[in-house]
Each structure stands twice: as C-alpha cells, then as structure tokens.
Design a protein that fits this description.
mainly beta, 22 strands
Length: about 300
C-alpha cells in the first residue's frame, strides 16, 4: 500500500506515514503520553520516548536503510530462527522477519489516549524460498507511557512448525555502559557465546565489562536495567519467553561491524525477550505462540 493510501486509511494528526531513511516507508506516532517511530520493513521500531523521559532505544548512526538489509538498533524482530540458521550459513542471520515488508492491518486510537497498531506478515513465494512453511505473524504495538509488544505466530499450514526461534532484539540506549547493572538474572544458567557456547552461572547483578553475548536459560521473570548515576531504570516484563539474551559487542566487534560506530558499544545494551537456546518452540496444526514484552521507564 502506498503512503497516500496508508495515510488516507490509517493516518491522523497523531499518526503519519512518510518516506524515511533510504526511501523506506515509516510511521510516526505522537500522543500525549509518548512518541514512537517504526519502519514497515521488519515492522521495526526505531524510536520510543515517553513524555518527560529520555529516548529509550539506541540506534546506530551508521545503520543501513536499504530494502532487504537489517536495520541496526531499535527493536528488530528475529524470526523464525535466532542467530545463524541451524543448518545453512547462507540464510539471513536471525531469520527473515526483520527484513521483510510488513502490512498495516489496523490503527486504533483508544479511549485511554494510547494508540495500538497491528501489523502482519504471512508466507509468500519469497519467504518460502527461505523457509518452506505456511504461517501468519501478527504484531501489536501499544504506545502509551509504557510500550507493549505482542508477537503472535499462527501455524496455518499442514505440518507442525518445529524449533521456532524468536526475539524482540531490543537495543536500549544508556549514558555509559560502565554504569549499567542488569537485575533479574541472578542464579540463572547461561550459554556464553563468547566462550565456545560453554554453560555458566550468573551471580548477582550483571555488569558489562567486556564483549557479552549470553543466552540466559530458565529466565521468565522481569529484567531491570539500572543506571545509578543517571537515576533511571527500565523494567522489561514478558510472557511466552523462558530465555533472555544480553548482548554488547564491546571494542573489537564494534570496530569490525560496518553499520556500528566504533564507540557505539559505550551507549547501548541489548536485552532481548527471546525464544532461544533450549527455549525454541513447537507450534502444532492450527496452533499459535504468543510472545510479549512490556517496557516501562522510571526516571528517578
């Protein structure tokens, strides 16, 4: 659907569709409670800012905005696998949902002052080349003082969907990574992907002092991101997820990525609501899996 048609059907003084970076279609939403921006490619949220708070999400200043290329930062949707494809290295990293163009299904202006957007992605000849299964994805974005996300995968085919990996790969903006503590992972096992995928245990809050790429297992509870000097915390509640991914590339990997500024690691951390590691899912015929994340900000 063209921009004119999107604005005619869904637009308002608070919801505007326009051409964004690289000529990609985007939507800007502004309410009394918050503002948000997302791109139709990947249904990719690139900005969220509650009223009176700082911007929540980190975006790379070197991100490529091109058709079929993943956007760096914000909230990518990883699906139907997380990380590299389990058997074919030629397949796109983190699946194809984040590089496909999604469809706008509905935009609701709610009596609460919040706005809810519903997006969808279904199997197509292009997706079947990468993954030969039938599916419907629905993504609901609720914009208020908190950001509520709901990703629903429905099996509309004739075979069971096995080993479905997924993540809401959220990049949070921080003032100084050395001041960051992550709570909610104490006494949890994790897979350390920087150390040959060895299994280790977390003790106490997590501090980021080096390259960090961890898949925390048996992690269903809320996660808190605390910046003490900035007097700010972020709370991430979730459902449909028993795993949490924490990622920061640190110095060498940041320098090696063309779409990531060399010093960008100092101002970001990924806290990902995931189905990863031993938490991949099976969806039976006619079944569905629902993954949710709710992001709340507290400025102290």
């Amino acid at each position: 659907m063209k921009l004119e048609a999107l604005n005619s059907r869904f637009g308002s003084d608070r919801v505007v569709f326009s051409e964004g970076n690289g000529g990609l279609a985007k939507c800007n939403i502004k309410t009394e409670k918050a503002e948000l921006e997302f791109y139709l490619q990947g249904s990719h949220i690139t900005h969220f800012k509650p009223r009176g708070a700082d911007s929540v999400l980190w975006m790379s200043t070197q991100s490529e905005f091109r058709t079929g290329v993943a956007i760096r930062g914000g909230i990518p949707i990883c699906w139907p696998w997380f990380g590299p494809h389990p058997t074919d290295a030629r397949m796109p990293q983190h699946g194809f949902a984040r590089i496909e163009k999604w469809n706008v299904i509905d935009v609701d202006d709610l009596p609460t002052g919040e706005i809810q957007v519903q997006m969808s992605l279904s199997n197509s000849p292009r997706t079947r080349e990468l993954w030969p299964f039938e599916f419907d994805l629905s993504y609901r974005i609720l914009i208020g003082e908190q950001l509520k996300l709901e990703l629903i995968c429905s099996n509309v085919g004739s075979v069971v969907l096995s080993d479905i990996g997924c993540a809401l790969h959220t990049y949070f903006q921080v003032a100084d990574i050395k001041d960051v503590q992550v709570h909610g992972l104490d006494e949890r096992r994790y897979i350390d992907k920087t150390d040959g995928a060895s299994t280790k245990w977390q003790s106490g809050p997590l501090w980021i002092t080096e390259e960090t790429d961890r898949v925390f297992l048996d992690s269903a509870e809320a996660i808190q991101l605390v910046e003490s000097r900035r007097q700010r915390s972020v709370n991430v509640q979730k459902t449909g997820s028993q795993s949490t991914v924490i990622w920061n590339p640190w110095i060498e990997k940041a320098n090696a990525m063309v779409d990531f500024p060399n010093d960008g690691y100092q101002r970001m951390i990924c806290i990902e609501t995931a189905n990863a590691g031993n938490d991949v899912r099976k969806i039976g015929l006619g079944g569905e899996h629902i993954l949710t994340a709710e992001i709340a900000i507290q400025e102290n």
